[in-house]
Amino acid sequence: MKPAPFEYHAPTTTEEALSLLAEHGYDAKILAGGQSLIPMMNFRLVQPAILVDLNNIPDLAYINPGDDGGLRLGSMTRHHQVETSPLVAERAPLIHETMPKIAYPQVRSRGTFGGSISHADPSAELVALSVALDGNFRLRNRDGERWTPAREFFVGLFTTVLEPNELLVEASLPPMPPHSGWSLKEVARRPHDFALIGVAAVVTLDEKGLCQQARMVLISAGDVPMVAHKAVELLKGQAPTAEAIKAAAEVAATEDIDPSSDIHATAEFRRHLANVLSRRALEQAFQRAAENK
Amino acid sequence: MIKKFIGKRVMRNEDPRLLTGQAQFVDDVEIPGMLHAAFLRSDYAHARLLSIDVSAARQHPGVVAVFTAEDMGDDWFPGPPLVSPPPTAKDVTFHSRRQVPLVKDKVRHAGEAIAVVIAESRYIAEDAVEDILVEFEPLEAVVDLEKALEVNSVLVHDDLESNLAAQMFQQKGDYEAARQQADLVIQRRIVIERGAAAAMENRGIVAHWDAKSQHLTIWDTTQAPIPIRNGTAARLGLSEHQVRVIAPFIGGGFGPKIMMFYAEELVIPWAAKKLNRPVKWIEDRRENFYATTQERGQVHDVEIALSRDGHILGLKDNFLHDTGAYDPYGLTIPLNTQSHDMGGYDIKNYSSEFKVVFTNKTIVTPVRGAGRPQGIFVIERMMDAAAKELGMDAVEIRKRNLIPPEAFPYEHKIIDQAFAPLIFDSGNYKAVVDKALDMIGYDKFVKEEQPHLRVDGKYVGIAIAPFVETTGVGPYEGARVTVEASGKINVATGIGTQGQGHFTSFAQIVAEQLGVEVNDVRIVTGDTTEFHWGTGTFASRGAVVAGNAVHAASSIVRKKILKLASKVLEAPEDELELEDGQVRVADIPQKSVSLGELAVLANPLRGAVEPGTEPGLESTAYFGPQYGATAFGTHAMILEVDPETMMIKIRRYVTVEDCGTVLNPLILEGQIHGGVSMGLGNAYYEKLHFDENGQLLNASFADYLVVSATEMPRIEVGHLETRSTLNELGAKGVGEAGAIPVPALFAQALENAFHDRKLEILEMPLSPNRLFELLNEEKSR
Q1: Which of A1, A185, A220, A270 to probe by mutation at the B interface, max B CB count within 10 Å?
Q2: Which of B606, B616, B636, B593 is nearest to B745 (CA)?
C-alpha cells in the first residue's frame, strides 16, 4: 500500500498555491490534513500526478469572529482547533458539540475544516452542518474570488462546484437567530465511524412559540447532504408538538432522502434510523429553542 | 513451599522495551543491500491463468527480479500438510490440497499470489506490479457452503469429484435411542460467519542468504520458528544448521501466524538465496485481509433431546465447515468444534458428522478460539431454546446439566484435535457459575432491577454462559536453563512469543525455583539458534507446555546448585536455602555462596572435573502432556440495547476463569481482556463480507470493524483455581478463553433484553442492521 509516484509541491503562501493550481489544473490534487486523501493514495484509488501541500501556509488556519456575530474559519484550521475553541463554543454551539463525533483524536489533530468540506463526503458531519447553519464558502483562484452558499456547494458524491484551479480558503458561518435550538444526532457502528445516519437540525421559534424557521440536514442519506425540505415545511408555523415532530420525521425519512445500501446498513434500515433520529433531533432542537428565549 | 513469585501480579519484564519502542519487530530488521518485495495478487476469486507477461515489470527502473511459478522451476511445490487426518479414526474422508508459492494454473481465492517483484524499494516494487499483464479466464466462484456441495457446483479443485474436502463422523452413546425417550426435541439451524484475526502487526519476512558462510537467516512473524526452520532447510536442500529462524517480538499471533508455510514464506527465502541479496517483505493491511488465514464459517443443523425436567438426553450436530481454497490445517477446527459442542455439560449421547468444504475464499486455519466458539455458541443457543420451551430459568437448566465435580476426569468417547481421547482432566464447573452469578448480582438484578427498567421502557438483558476450553496439547516443548557467571539466569525455549508475557511468566517459574528476582531471569524465545526443538505457540499451550518444561529444567538446575553448594559450604543439601541469588545454610546465614560463584566453580578453567559430571549449572528439559488440560469458566453480562437504533451499551461484564494454577494474574487478565474484545467482535462487529463472486467487500479497517477502546466494557475478572492433574505446575491454558463464550453470551443477553419480542438469534456475528431485520421478521410472522 504505497502511493503511485507523484510530484510534490509545498507552497508557503496562498498565492503560490493558487498559481500551482492554475498551472497544473486537473493534474493537481490539494493536500490538506490528508485524512482521506492519503489512504486513497495508498490504496492507489487516486493517483494524482501533482500534490500541492497546504500545510506550510499559516495564513489559512484561523478562527475569527464574523462581523455578523458568526464565525470565519480558515480552511486549514484543524478539527482539534475548532473543537477546543471558546469562540466556536459560544458562536456555533452545534459545531462545538459535533466535533468530538468526527472520527477520533488522531484524525482531528490533523484533519482540517476546509479539507472535509472540499472532500464533500456525504457521511461527513461538517458537510451537513455547513448547510444546516446556512454557511458560505469563499473560493479563490489566481485571478479573484467568489462566495458560494453551502447549500449550492455540494453537487454530487465527492463533487463540489470547485473548479480545478480554485481553492476553498474560508468558511463563514452566520449566527443562529434568537430563540433558536439545535441538535446533531447520529448513529455509528463505533463512535468514531462514519455515521450510518446522522441528522443535524436548527430551528427557530417565534414569539408565540411556533416554529418560525427550521433546517434539517441528513448525513449518509444520499449523494450529498440531504436537506429535509418537505419535513420542515410541515413544521413551519406549527407548534412543535410531539405529533408534529413525529409526522415531520416520518416525511424526512420517506420523502426527503435517498439512502443506499451497503454492508453496514440497508437503505431500509437507514430510513428507519433517519425517522428515529429526525424525531430525536427535532425534539432536542425545539426543546433548546424553547429554553433559549 | 510458600510461593514467592508464582501467582503474583509481577509487572512484565518486556514492557519497558515494548513501550519505549526498543523491541525488535521484523520490519525493524535492516541489512545493507536489502531488497523489497511486492506480490501481484489475483483480483479474481476463481480464474484460470492463461498467460503472464512480466517483461515490462522487469524493465522498470529499480526492479531487480520478477518471479512467477515458472521461474521457480523444480523449487515450486505446494506447502507441507500441517496436520494430517487422524490416523485411527474410522470413516474419515480427507483430501489434502495445499497452498502454492505462486499460482501456476488456476487462482482459487482473491488475493492469491501470482508473481513477486523484487526491487530497490517497496514503492518501486508496487509500481512494477502494475506493469505485469495477466490474462485470466474468470470462473464462477464457489462461495456458499451448501451450494458448494451441490452436484452441479463448479469445483475449486478440478481433480476432485466435489468440493468436499473432508468428512468425519463421531458419536458417543446412542443418540437415536436417547431421542426416543425424550419429552422434548428441538431442532435449529445455526449459521456462523467468518472474521479476521486482525493482529496489530501484519505478517513479515526478511531472508538473508550469506553465500560465503553458506548460511540463511530468516526473521519471520511466525508462531512456530522451529518448524519453519526445518521446513525451509528441507525445501532449499540445506542442513537445518545452515538455517536460523528468528521470530522476534510479534504484534499479535492469534493463530494465523501458526499457518505454515504461507506462500510468502515459500517464496522470499528462495528468492533471497537465488539473488544472493537480503529480501524483505512486509504484508500490508489490504494483503492481510486476503492472504492471511481466517476462520469461523460453519453451518450447523442441531438437534437436542431433553427430559421434561430439563436434563439433556442427547445432542446431534451435523455441520459444514468452510476451509477456503485449501486445507493445510487438516481437521483441527471442526474437531475442536465437536470437542466443545457439549460444553461443560454431562451429555451421554452425542452424534456429529461434519463436512469440510472447499470454497473460493481465503484459507481457513485456527483463529483464537479455533472452532471452540462455534461449539459453545451451538450448545448455549440450544440451552436457551430449551429453557424457553420448558419454561425454565436459564441458569437452572444449565446448572442441572453441568458435569459434577466428582465426575472428573470426565471422559468423552470422542477424539480431540490432537486425536487423543477427549478427557476433561479436572474441574468444578458449578463453582465458576456460582461465582459469576454472585459477582454480577444475578438474583438481585432479575428480581429487583430489571422489572423497574422494563417499566421505564428500557431494554436491558442479562446473560450467563459457561464454557470449557481444551488447552495445552502436546506434543512437547523444551527449555534450557543456565546460571551465568554474573549470577543471572538465562532461559531459552523454542516457542515464539506474540505478546503472551512469556518473558515474565517463565521468569517467575525460574525465580521460584532458583531464588532469584524475576528481572534477573533473561528469557529467549523464538530463535532456533538458541533452542531448536519444539513446535510453537498455539492452542493455549505456551504457559502449560513450555512453562512446565521451564519448570522441569529449573528444578534440575536447582538440584545441581544444591549439590555443588553443599560441597562448597560443607553443609547437607537439606539445610540449604536459595534466596536473593545466594545459597545459604539455613541456620547460619553468614555462611553462603552466590549463584554466580557457583556457576564459575561449575565451569572451571583448570583442574580436573569428576567423571560423569557436566560442566556448568545448566539443564535442558522437555515436557509433553499425556493429553490436553481443560480449562473452564463463565462469563456474565448486563447489556442495554436501544430498541430503535439497535445500538448497544454493555453495563456490566464479568468473567470467572479457572485455568488451574495462575502464574501471573496480571498477564492472565490481559489475556481475558484481549479475548473478550475479539469475542465481542465476533458477536456484533467483525464480519468478513464476501459477495457472490468471492470478493471481500470490507478489506480495510474503515469497513472491517475491529472492537476498539470505545466499545470495550470494563471487565470484572474473578479467578478460581482447580489444579490440572496433568502437569507439575497444575496449569491450564487461557489464551483463547476470553473469546470463546462471548457470541453465545451476547445472543442470550439480547434475547433477554427484548423480553416482549419473540427474538431468537441463530447466527453470528450480528450487526445493528441484522438485529433490525430479525426483529422485523418476528413482527411480520
Answers
A1: A1
A2: B636
| Domain assignment present for B469 | yes
Which three-class secondary structure string do you get for B408-419? Answer: CCEEEEEECCCC
Range of the domain at B266: 31-139+201-251+256-291
Q: How far is A83 from chain B (nearest CA, A)?
A: 19
Question: Residue B498 is part of a domain; what is its CATH number?
Answer: 3.30.365.10
Q: Based on the fold, state whether residues B414 and B503 are members of the same structural domain.
A: no
Q: How many CB atoms lie within 10 A of CB B692?
A: 11
Last residue of a domain, one of B578, B594, B623: B623
pLDDT-derived band at A131, boundaries 50, 70, 90: very high
B770 touches chain A (CB under 8 A): no
Look at domain A180-291 and name its CATH class: alpha beta
| Residues in chain B with pLDDT values less than 70 | 1-2, 85-90, 608-609, 779-781
Torsion of CA B308, B312, B318, B320, to 10 degrees: 110
pLDDT of residue B86: 67
- Per residue in A11-47, pLDDT (tens digit) is 999 999 999 999 999 999 999 999 999 999 999 999 9
Q: Is the ipTM of this complex over 0.90?
A: yes
B689 at A interface, C-beta within 8 A: yes
Residue B616 and residue B634 in one domain:
no
Written as one string, the DSSP assignment of A208-222 is TS-EEEEEEEEESSS
Of B284, B703, B705, the CB nearest to A1: B284
Q: What SS3 class is residue A126? A: helix
CATH assignment of A7-53? 3.30.43.10
- A263–B698: do the CB atoms touch at under 8 Å? yes
Run of H or E residues at A40 = helix A37-42
Give the three-state DSSP class for B25. coil
